[in-house]
From TrEMBL:
Species the sequence originates in: Thermoanaerobacterium thermosaccharolyticum (strain ATCC 7956 / DSM 571 / NCIMB 9385 / NCA 3814 / NCTC 13789 / WDCM 00135 / 2032) (Clostridium thermosaccharolyticum)
PROSITE patterns per record: DEGV (PS51482)
Alphabetically ordered keywords of this record: Lipid-binding
GO MF, one annotated term: lipid binding
Pfam family, one: DegV
Protein name per its UniProtKB record: DegV family protein
Length: 280
């Protein structure tokens, strides 16, 4: 049985306990703040990062370089037979292209690089499934086939207090970002083939939660059988309100919850919440 290493980037926001449980290898993006560079989750922790964000700092991220991926892949192939690398949507970052360049430079067919076409825990759900399959003896072809099938089925809803951070990070136009500046208006974004699309805007938390429930109902998915990902940047209370609503409405008992890491927080800002799930 081949030993397969599962690799991802720090934007996948997989909880630390799951990373450890399945031996997932997380390659950190670089966070740049006031001319100082930090490796996400290594040189700067979440509390410190969000304190800086709330103080008005505007950090940026740097994608993982091909050289960094080459080092990771080469090191893992000393003890693993295969490497499967699942990364943030190529439409949101150049990290995927960096990994492809690393594979090309190494000229090693044992490396597989996949574009998750997702953001944050949307990619994380794919990585967790791949890691479970690898742990249970799945082959590279089986894992890749399963993940490719799942990619188009992962759906997410992101709710923001402000779209300013997405605009500054180049993920939205200025005209779109203005939506988030209206008092108590919460823009709602969804996944559109690897990009963030503004789907609607609502006023206040209660209406946002109603919107989430209605959106999930329209999918006609039996969510009792699903694992739901929940994420917040600096709004755990709001995330828990959403969890209770989903639990009560759909009977869901299996949640993966986390506070977004620094890389996702740079673009989402300090007051965002996300819901991630797989469609049938």
């Amino acid at each position: 049985m081949s030993k397969i290493a599962i690799v991802t980037d720090s934007v996948s926001d997989i909880p630390d306990d799951i990373v450890k449980l399945y031996d997932i290898y997380v390659v950190p993006l670089t966070i740049d703040i006031d001319g100082v560079s930090y490796k996400d989750g290594i040189d700067i922790k979440k509390d410190d990062f969000y304190n800086l964000l709330n103080s008005g700092k505007m950090p940026t991220t740097s994608q993982i370089s091909p050289i960094e991926f080459m080092e990771v892949f080469s090191d893992l192939l000393k003890s693993y037979d295969e490497v499967i690398c699942i990364l943030l949507s190529s439409k949101l970052s150049g990290t995927y292209q960096s990994a492809l360049l690393a594979k090309e430079n190494l000229k090693n067919s044992k490396i597989t690089v996949l574009d998750s076409k997702n953001f944050s825990l949307g990619a994380g759900l794919l990585v967790i499934e791949a890691a479970k399959m690898a742990r249970n003896g799945g082959t590279r072809d089986e894992i890749v086939s399963k993940i490719n099938d799942m990619i188009s089925k992962i759906s997410y809803i992101m709710i923001f207090d402000s779209l300013e951070y997405l605009y500054r990070g180049g993920r939205l136009k200025k005209s779109q970002a203005i939506l988030g500046s209206i008092l108590n208006i919460k823009p709602i974004l969804v996944n559109n083939d690897g990009e963030l699309e503004i789907k609607d805007k609502v006023r206040g938390r209660k209406n946002a939660i109603k919107w989430i429930i209605n959106y999930m109902k329209e999918t006609n998915v039996d969510f009792k059988r699903k694992e739901i990902g929940l994420l917040h940047t600096d709004r755990e209370e709001f995330m828990l309100e959403i969890e209770n609503a989903i639990r009560n409405e759909f009977g869901v008992t299996n949640f993966i919850k986390n506070r977004a890491g620094c890389s996702a927080g740079v673009h989402a800002g300090p007051y965002a919440v996300g819901i991630f799930f797989e469609l049938d």
